[in-house]
Each structure stands twice: as C-alpha cells, then as structure tokens.
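Entry 14. Structure prediction run on the chain below.
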Amino acid sequence: MRLHSLRSKLMISVSALVIGSGVVISFIETRRFSNSLHEAAAKQGEYISRAVALEATNKVLINDLVSLQNLLNYQLDSNPSITYLFVIKDDQILAHTFADGIPKKLIGVNTTTENERGNFKRIVNDEGEHYLDIAWPIFAGKAGVLRMGLSEKTYRSRVINLWLQMTAVTCGILFLSLSVSYLFIRRITRPLSALAEAAENIDEKNLEFNLQPGGHDEVGSLTASFNRMLGRIQSHTQRIEKNAVELDRAYHQTRSSFDIIQKIGAQSSLKDVSSYLILKFREIVSCSELVLLIFSRDRKTLFAIYDHEFKIIKSDTFQEVLSIFKDMDGHCCPK
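Output returned:
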C-alpha cells in the first residue's frame, strides 16, 4: 500500500486516532488509579502508624527497649508492605529493623510538623526504589517519633500491570478498527481507484470505458459523471477525426487540382494537355481505356485523344456522337 494513496492516508488517520485516544485514556486512567493507590497506602500507613505509636508509648516511657524492638520486628514481619521501622527520641535511635544498621541519610529526611498528626513524604533510595516515609509522633511527641517506610513497589507494579492491560486492549481495538476500517475504506475507495486507473489509461485510441456506479452516493455520482464526460469526449473525438479526414481529403483534392492546373499550364500543345489529363484521370478512375473528346467552339470539329493518339473528326462524321450528347438535356454539351 503506497503511503501517498488515499487509502493509506485514511488508514494512518484511523490508526493515529485509535492510538492517540488509547494513550490519552490509558494515561488518565493509570493516573487516577495511581492516585487512588497512593491515597489507600497513605490511609493504611496512617492506621498502622497510629496503632504502633499507641502500643509503643508505654514501652518507650518505661524504657523497655527489648519489647519495643520485638514490637517493631513483629509489625515488619506481619505486614509485607512495611520496609523499615525505627523509633527516634532526642536524636537517639531507640529501636530499628535494619539488619546492617540504619542509614544516616534517612534519619533527617522526614520529621513531624504537628504533635497530634504525622507527616507523609515520598522518598527514593540510592537504588531508585520509591517509599512512602511516615513520621508519627509518639505520645504527642513526648515519647519520640515513630518512622515507618512503606514500599511503593507493589503499587507501582499494579499501575504498570494496568498500563500493560490497557495497552493490550488498545492494541486489540486498534487491530479490530484497522480490520473494519480497511474493509470499509477499500469498499469506498475501490470506485475511486477504478476512476483513477481509467483516467490514467485514457488516450485518443482508448476511449471505450463504461464504469459501473457503485451506488447512489457521491462516489456513484462521480462515476456516472465520468462516464458521461467520457462519452462526450468520445463523440467530440470522432467528430474531430471525421472533420480531419474531410479536411485532409479536401486538402489533397485542392493540391491535386492545383498540380493539374500547374502541369496543364506548362504544356505547349493541346495534345500534350490531353495526354496529361488522360494520365491523371486513370489515376482517379479505375478504367484502363479512356478517350478524351473535345469539341471545337463551332461544334464542327471533334478532337479525340486516346492511347497517345490524337485524331480530328469533322462534322459529317461525329453527328451521331453529337446527337448522344444532345439527348443528355444539354448538361454535357456546351452551348
């Protein structure tokens, strides 16, 4: 399929429309889905942080660090979305769940802004992993701050899966749309292709075209108009060819007459003129035996020329010949 054809342009337009709408819809839906997942994660993190902070209050106040550590480990094991937990008070780490020690950059990356509610902040580690870091005050901040990190890997994978599903749906819709559009466009453009092919093959020797209209729509009207136009062109062409033949015949007749007159003017005697006329008449008339008869002005002498012979017949001999010409209503006999 050539890219500059009408069919290919329509197919490209349909593809662009389907792909563009699919991309826009996918972007909007995945954006909304991602926001809803982050809101759900924030609510879940708030609920867990509030519960852990409430349970850790007594342990921090009585300085039961072993129980506090066990509490953090239990929460980490029971909730797969939690990546890390630690409690900080007066810039000191009371307990944490990091096996290799707590990263120093993580300690000051988030803090509480209110004594009753926590602060949520999205962070990225050195490996490019995304987390929702929650800083929740323990006992209104008097017993320290609970820091909890929720991994966004699960939520991001769900967003990616949704994007892939919508991409697959878009590809399916694109394939179906292209299939239906191809059949529809092919049916619509087939008469146009026939018109284009007919117009390309038209010349003075090839005017015998009669395209069948595909329907009563605009394409069918165009096909009928093309047939009528072609008929008029054929009629005018035949008329022009006929006129050209007649003009050519008239030209040759005029040219022959001019040549004959010119040749006659160049002859020096009546015998030469008569011989030349007989020769030219044999070229025009399919007759092997021709006789040229010429009367004198007083009709008393007849000049007969045939086969390069020139004879003069007197009045007493050609009266019978003269009577034949008189019986022809005077059309051939000079007066």
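The radius of gyration is 56 Å.
Filed with the rest of this week's runs.
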